[in-house]
Amino acid sequence: MDPCKEKIAIIGLGYVGLPLAVEFGKKQPVLGFDVNVARINELTDGRDSTLEVSAANLKSANHLSFSNDTNLLNDCTIFIVTVPTPIDSANRPDLSPLIKASKTVGGALKKGSIVIYESTVYPGCTEEVCVPILESTSGLKFNIDFFCGYSPERINPGDKVNTLTTIKKITSGSNPETADVVDALYAKIIKAGTWKASSIKVAEAAKVIENSQRDLNIAFVNELSVIFDRLEIDTLEVLEAAGSKWNFMPFRPGMVGGHCIGVDPYYLTHKAEEVGYHPQVILAGRRINDNMARYAARNMIKRMLQNGIDVSRSTIGVMGVTFKENCPDIRNSKVADLIKEIEAWGAKVRVMDAWADALEVNQEYGIELRNIDSQNKVDSLIVAVGHSQYRELSPETLMSYCNTNKQPVIGDLKCLYDRHSLIKAGFTVFRF
Length: 432
Hints:
It is a single chain. With about 425 residues, this protein is an alpha/beta fold. It contains 16 helices and 13 strands. It has helices at about 15-25, 35-45, 55-60, 95-105, 125-140, 175-185, 200-230, 235-240, 265-275, 280-290, 290-305, 335-345, 360-365, 390, 395-400, 420-425; strands at about 10, 30-35, 65, 80, 115, 145-150, 170, 195, 315-320, 350, 380-385, 410, 430. The strands form three sheets. The protein has a six-stranded parallel sheet with strand order 3-2-1-4-5-6, sandwiched between helices. It has a five-stranded parallel sheet with strand order 10-9-11-12-13, with helices on both faces. Strand 9 (about 315-320), helix 12 and strand 10 (about 350) form a beta-alpha-beta unit. The model has no long low-confidence stretch (mean pLDDT about 95). This is Nucleotide sugar dehydrogenase. Keywords: NAD, Oxidoreductase. Pfam families: UDPG_MGDP_dh, UDPG_MGDP_dh_C, UDPG_MGDP_dh_N. GO terms for molecular function: NAD binding; oxidoreductase activity, acting on the CH-CH group of donors, NAD or NADP as acceptor; oxidoreductase activity, acting on the CH-OH group of donors, NAD or NADP as acceptor.
């Protein structure tokens, strides 16, 4: 098979699937498939609500079409699955989107087809969970009639520098021949080059440890921030001082949300426990990071009480609800946990966000986005996300958003502002 001449189906057109469909669609026939009709309609109209792909870039993919019609998958021979792999309320892997996608692809498989998975999974998932579904649905035999590959996504939502084509891509295949085909396919669009792993399991494992490593490093500095707060030391000043050493790693404390760092470690620990090992370090890091929203809320409440603010009659403003700056992605946002904790103390919360879709936020979290400004004041303020619009605000402007009958508290959770300038403007400051 010459992969560069085959028609590709991209299953799932979110933050991962759409950029992939666009890049391949500049080179060869691609069907972008998604079960979300609204998503298909907006992409057909040349709009991307995730803001990952510009209208001009979307238009440049001359060989790309979009549909939710499963019958059109029958024309494809290469299938790339990019559906989300979340966790459930008990932090267990939720493979239902992956299972549904595998059933859909299985119905369109033919002899010689290749199915490549990009969704984050635990080591072994592709061959242990997905392949049996493909076999039973298609009636074909794995590694005889059809073949599989795994190439983990490395998309960083909102990042316009480190994009799909500029990040090295791990590839793998279910046998050496398939590995070569998969690698050649991606090499055609990835300017940064590819890294061919020795097996699908190795590629799967590489993906989950990338984000588990980041999670643990953030957990370390989060724990430091808790310690330093009790010692009345500014964590940022400590990290900046330590950063003067050439090999100090510049991680910053904060709430860990999103679709990767706060989720992927649970896929690894799930598999570890399946094979009889109870992870300690990874789960300890997860516990620390999952507790940071509650920690931030309680520290805000404590400082407000110390300033004589009646919490039960107060309104706390929260600026930013997306999981990261300059991006509309609200998946697994820990700001929602922060808001719940504040409300549990009896305070009202007023939430704004310069990037998030108000309807999506309301549907996902039951949070109504409103304005916070000099005409819509609050009693204390939390700047939870580092959107560029918030970075540009002066401490004096932030103070104009607050009632001043009692000294307001500001939670500068992303350390966007100079601490001394905030104090000079009249705030009591809390930051990680």
